[in-house]
Give the backbone structure.
Amino acid sequence: MAGKRQSRSEAKREQLLQVATELFLAKGYEAVSVDTIVARAGGTKTNVYKHFGGKADLFAAVVKELGVRAGRPFDGMDLEAADPEEALVQIGRRYLTALLTPNAVRQHRMIIAESARFPSVSKRWFKAGPDQARDAIASCFKKAQEAGRLRGPLPRRLTSLFLDMLGGEQLLRQTIAGSSTPKPSEINKLVGDAVQVFLHGALPANKK
């Protein structure tokens, strides 16, 4: 019986976390109350206090889980055998596809909005998500440099230059200006242009 009670308890915790995630992403922290979360998830406010301690702690749990999810597209990525252009195209497509979904944009918007109120929570999100993704990509760049297929600055710096070239303007357009999600063909074009400039520069061949 104890095992079943624990299973039901864990299921309720996951349900509260899922509902809170949807509400916080849609409305922001201030506009969502514990009562609103409980009304949609079922149960009582006691469930929230038991599993999370309160609204602020529930928000912290939501942000932590979102950060973990943000890093997952790059889990287990292994491009050691790929040539640099092929590897960069794969990295770029995976990165932009994950970065520019409506849910990911709402997530960035929420983190930015609440970063002053919850600075430590926002830092944990960045470490669990963007930092993890960049570490995985930097590992690929490091192997390519060691094999003599890439040159340039340290792998982590190389990663930042490439990803910022890819997604900086696009994320701003969606987060702030409300632009629509790019179609796969548009993502392919963005990635292709970034890879060519990243690998070959913007100077004419006779000027290099």
Observations:
- The chain has two domains: 2-53, 66-207.
- The mean pLDDT is 86.
